[in-house]
Amino acid sequence: MAFTFEKGNSMNIRVVGTAIVAVGFMFFGIAKAADFPAGSTMEAIHKKGKLVVGTSLKLSGFSMQNPVTDTTEGFEIDLARYLAEKLTGSADNVEFVAVISQNRLAFVQTGRVDVALDTVTISDARKKIVGFAGPYFLAGQDVLLAKDNRTIHSVSDLNNQSVCVVTGTDDGVNLLKVAPQAKLFSLADKNSCAEAVADGRYVAEVDDSALLEPLAKLQPAKLKMLGKPFTTEPYGIVVKVDDTVFRNWINTQLEQSIKDGTWMKSYNKNLRDFGAARIPVVDRY
């Protein structure tokens, strides 16, 4: 499969496929404008001819720009292409825009992207400003430690300890519920936190287990997982807060992908190292 990349600034990477995607999420119907309600976001995307997706492009297993093949890959990438296929008739009609925790919701709110697929945890607080389809994945918050740490055996042991969290996430709030005396410090991204733990600046990093495990595997001589998740983190596809029609449409596609086995196929391809899959149940709130 060949791709042409048009690179502008570092925050925007447009992907244009030149071959039909043979793996991941596939749907062989041809979408037509008449298939969607007049005035809906689905109709607008179909007429535009592409789905614009905010995503990390830096997270192994979920959303990654492969440095060797220069292609985008991962569980969230497969899902984005699946939705693009349903909306436009081709899984190649997708533009990926790199986002970070601090701007991903705003990009949806302002229309910079149609959806955000970026391991965003569904929460009541976030539902006040954006909408969520899904969940499409279930994770849990865990703790990343230095390999030689012998003092942290449970999450409560983080009381009075320095803990790194990513700016713009809920990780610190959740930790303080079980370790209220933890000393929180924030950095811009999970990789920076991991390096700070590895070099001893902080005792631990708290984040979703699905995001921490790849970091531990990158530096097995320096980092390890506590391996005791203390929350359940349902990841949702972010849409505009009042776009109920689009949200429900995406939910239907997610349910279909689970039913026909394409969700599991992508999980096994991208995330099998995380253990047995926890198949989510879509929440149509």
UniProtKB/TrEMBL annotation:
Give the source lineage, highest ranks first: Bacteria, Pseudomonadati, Pseudomonadota, Betaproteobacteria, Burkholderiales
One Gene Ontology term from the biological process aspect of the record: amino acid transport
* GO CC terms, sorted: extracellular region; outer membrane-bounded periplasmic space
Q: Where is the Solute-binding protein family 3/N-terminal domain?
A: 50-273
What organism does the record attribute this protein to? Answer: Glaciimonas soli
Q: Which InterPro entries match?
A: Bact_solute-bind_prot3, SBP_3_CS, Solute-binding_3/MltF_N
Per its UniProt record, what SMART domains does this chain match?
PBPb (SM00062)
Report the protein name in the record: Transporter substrate-binding domain-containing protein
- Per the UniProt entry, the signal peptide is none
Q: Which domain of life is it from?
A: Bacteria
UniProt key word DNA-binding: no
Keyword set for this entry? Signal, Transport
- Family to which the UniProt record says this protein belongs: Belongs to the bacterial solute-binding protein 3 family.
Q: Which Pfam families match?
A: SBP_bac_3
